[in-house]
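Entry 14. Structure prediction run on the chain below.
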Amino acid sequence: MRNWIILFVFIFMLYGCASNEKKVLLKSGIWQAELMVMDNQVLPFNFELQKTPGGVYGMNIFNAEELIQVDEISIAGDSILIKTPVFEGYIAGTFTENSISGEFIKESLDRIVPFSAQFGEPERFPNVEKPLVDISGIWETAFSPETDDTYMGKGIFTQKNGRVTGTFRTATGDYRYLDGVMDGDSLKLSAFDGAHAFLFTGKVADSVINGTFYSGNHFKEPFIAKRNSIYELPSPDSLTFLNEGYEKLAFSFPDSSGNMVSLEDERFKGKVVIVQIMGTWCPNCLDETKFLVDFTKKNSSEDLEIIGLAFEYAKTSEGAQKSIKRLVDRVGVPYPILLAQYGTEDKKLAQEKLPMLNHVLSYPTTIFIDKKGEVRKIHTGFNGPATGEKYVAFKQDFNTFVNTLLKE
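Output returned:
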């Protein structure tokens, strides 16, 4: 596989020794980016490129209400390297004043998605027809229907004129801030956050959406959504539980210094403990991590401990620890994140590391332990800020439950 970072360093050194030719500068302003996914489909998103007087580039990526600030952009000659916050994915390529051509790369998964960008296009999906339907509301959704892999989702959408925003919730999390349009009778939604590249397309007729979900250029599946204003997913507190014969959660995993950490350690005794099963590659986990960081800032207590268990797809323990450190540094995580697994994020293998659980259904999964060391609740998935009212309700429930445990 091409190692774009090594190539970039080589170009940077070569360019540094070259004569003082006039440098090509990327234009500041709004750009439209495109990722080529499967079936010759194009996944678009917009970003704003800025350049400081000192010559440093910055980028804001837009997904509906979400703004992702990118401050790691390197230029060498006509080569560019863009590293998105926290996640390992990066964009590498070449550029002119008005264009960028390259690839979105996730090395640990050996995934490469063709990438291009053009300056001056403010629309995510340009040249669309007048919408023939308004899809605002709740949609009961079956992904991979009538197969062994089927699972349910809840579409939550708002449409203003032709623009559509919202997300799909599932039992394991949400599909982030989706942004798009109704183009005649066609639905087009996309999101790019540096970890995942999502595209949803579909035809709408008679309160039914028949569509396809694309994740990068490595996965696709059909979905069918039907209007259902009262549809709700199963309670996230009912999906994961302790197996019969187990009374407590137990584990021993290394921290960033290689020290083995266990719930039997003195620092956790007699305290409320929140255990976060997560991965640094997981956007829903990032949402939860930011929430937990904010919670600890506003609710400092000597009787509360939080600990993360990271299940990483980085191929080496060193690579996995590097990803963990990047998350800790970028988000300001004050609690320990232990390396529970590397080389794969496979949930069946994760469950083998935690045999007291009936399964690891989702990243993240959050386990609440009281001062006696007993598991009081296990919350599967995370309703992030893209879910609107569900996120507000989650925060209220979380605060109330943790404060109840602390008062016991």
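The chain has three domains: 4-119, 137-227, 252-407.
Filed with the rest of this week's runs.
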